[in-house]
């Protein structure tokens, strides 16, 4: 496919992203589109019109995923796409780039007369971020069969509204196709996305070819010491829960650094009780988030963190408890699709490197269904999930070109 001359319509790409950025934009500049909300529906409707305008055949399924097909025939489809829902006050590229970019890529292929052997399907996944229905990657979980459609319909948001009811006001008319892909229906999947980290920018690279999506373990942790008088209790007679938790927090950092290989560990929630300025902390509640790109490494990280919890408590006469909140297995990407992305980057004369994704994406579930991988473009300052989320226009264009070339090879 290196012989193709691909010209992405940069003006159109930027204009589409700008339209989407105005849907759900708050006074502080952040964009809020919760899954199946009216903002989400408006953004989706805009993309539906774009798909129709680009000549794609549009269908929607029973959980609200939208798909636009380029090309025809009975061959297994090559799928590409991303999501339109956001975190609260999020950025304008996380999700939309992978949809707008896919349509621009398909249009560029159409302009050079490329006729795919396999149809290319652009998908708008429903509910990726998990900021409404207590679970994310809903649309891809339905397509891959990771979660049953009935279970998705039964999800309930914080206000007691069911997914099924929210879907009924989402604006789809006409028949809904089954969400779950049939065996052999999807040939390959690729998602264009912002890196959401600073590696590509730091190394002045254009493209990341994602080799694995890190899995995660989240544990609720309790440190149970003894609340007491901050003035009257001598230092050697204390069972300070905060000091045990603090020792543990530093140990968690040390373990992740020592393991390496892409292992990361974070304690993002830390609550001290009773929380009085003159009371020795009696209890600390914390949540640790552990991630790694391979299952064995994730387990090793988890085991060592759990052992460190007990040790940190014993050293201060503080008892500890932990419970598993969730474990998501890492998703290795497909070598053939990764290599296709690398060839596409070389053909586009841009520099790429292999890297892992620390964040979870719809591609994680799609990889359970078919050979899959992701294309990352640099995030300015490594910022994401915030209004400052940005990527240079020429970098967005390069990402789209690499996507177009990748799709062309996969669809041939
Ligand atoms: Zn995303």
Report on this model:
The chain has 412 residues and is α/β, with parallel strands linked by helices. The chain contains twelve helices and 15 strands. The protein starts with 9 loop residues before the first helix and ends with a helix. The protein binds zinc ion. Zinc ion is lined by residues 83, 94-95, 128, 193, 361.
Which terms would index this structure?
412 residues, alpha/beta, nine-stranded mixed β-sheet, 23% strand, elongated, binds zinc ion
Lay out the secondary structure.
Layout: H1 10-21, H2 38-53, E1 57-60, E2 66-70, E3 77-83, H3 96-111, E4 120-125, H4 138-144, H5 149-153, H6 163-168, E5 186-194, H7 199-202, E6 207-213, E7 215-224, E8 228-229, H8 241-259, E9 264-273, E10 279-280, E11 283-292, H9 295-314, E12 319-328, E13 331-332, H10 335-347, E14 352-357, H11 363-369, E15 372-377, H12 393-410
Helix pairs in contact: 1-3, 3-12, 4-11, 8-9, 10-12
The strand count comes to 15
Judged by helices, strands and strand pairing, the structural class is: alpha/beta
Radius of gyration computed on alpha carbons: 23 Å
Largest sheet: 9 strands, mixed
The amount of helix comes to 25-40%
Q: Given the C-alpha coordinates, what overall shape results? A: elongated
* Oligomeric state of the chains present here: single chain
The number of distinct helices, counting runs of at least 4 residues, comes to 12
Low-confidence stretches: none
What is the string of helix and strand elements?
HHEEEHEHHHEHEEEHEEEHEEHEHEH
Average pLDDT, rounded to a whole number, is: 96
């Amino acid at each position: 496919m290196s012989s193709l001359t691909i010209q992405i319509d940069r003006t159109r790409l930027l204009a589409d992203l700008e339209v989407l950025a105005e849907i759900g934009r708050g006074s502080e500049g952040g964009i809020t589109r919760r899954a199946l909300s009216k903002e989400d529906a408006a953004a989706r409707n805009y993309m539906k019109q774009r798909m129709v305008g680009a000549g794609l055949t549009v269908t929607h399924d029973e959980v609200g995923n939208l798909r636009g097909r380029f090309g025809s025939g009975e061959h297994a489809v090559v799928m590409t796409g991303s999501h339109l829902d956001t975190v609260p006050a999020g950025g304008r590229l996380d999700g939309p780039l992978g949809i707008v970019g896919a349509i621009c890529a398909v249009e560029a292929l159409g302009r050079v007369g490329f006729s795919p052997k396999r149809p290319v399907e652009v998908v708008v996944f429903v509910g990726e971020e998990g900021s409404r229905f207590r679970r994310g990657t809903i649309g891809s979980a339905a397509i891959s069969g990771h979660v049953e459609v009935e279970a998705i319909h039964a999800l309930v948001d914080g206000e007691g509204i069911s997914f099924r009811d929210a879907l009924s006001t989402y604006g789809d008319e006409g028949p809904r196709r089954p969400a779950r892909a049939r065996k052999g229906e999807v040939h390959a999947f690729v998602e264009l996305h912002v890196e959401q980290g600073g590696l590509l920018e730091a190394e002045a690279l254009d493209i990341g070819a994602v080799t694995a999506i890190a899995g995660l373990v989240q544990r609720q942790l309790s440190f149970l010491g003894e609340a007491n008088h901050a003035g009257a209790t001598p230092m050697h007679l204390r069972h300070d829960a905060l000091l045990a938790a603090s020792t543990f927090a530093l140990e968690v950092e040390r373990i992740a650094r020592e393991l390496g290989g892409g292992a990361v560990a974070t304690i993002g929630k830390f609550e001290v009780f009773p929380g009085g300025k003159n009371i020795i902390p009696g209890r600390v509640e914390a949540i640790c988030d552990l991630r790694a790109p391979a299952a064995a490494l994730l387990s090793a990280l988890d085991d060592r963190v759990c052992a460190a919890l007990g040790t940190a408590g014993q050293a201060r006469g503080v008892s500890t408890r932990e419970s598993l909140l969730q474990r998501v297995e890492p998703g290795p990407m497909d070598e053939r699709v990764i290599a296709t992305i690398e060839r596409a980057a070389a053909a586009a004369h841009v520099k790429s490197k292999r890297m892992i994704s620390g964040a979870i994406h719809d591609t994680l579930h799609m990889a359970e269904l078919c050979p899959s991988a992701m294309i990352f473009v640099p995030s300015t300052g490594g910022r994401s999930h915030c209004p400052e989320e940005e990527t240079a226009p020429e970098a967005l264009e390069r990402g789209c070109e690499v996507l177009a070339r990748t799709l062309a090879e996969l669809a041939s």
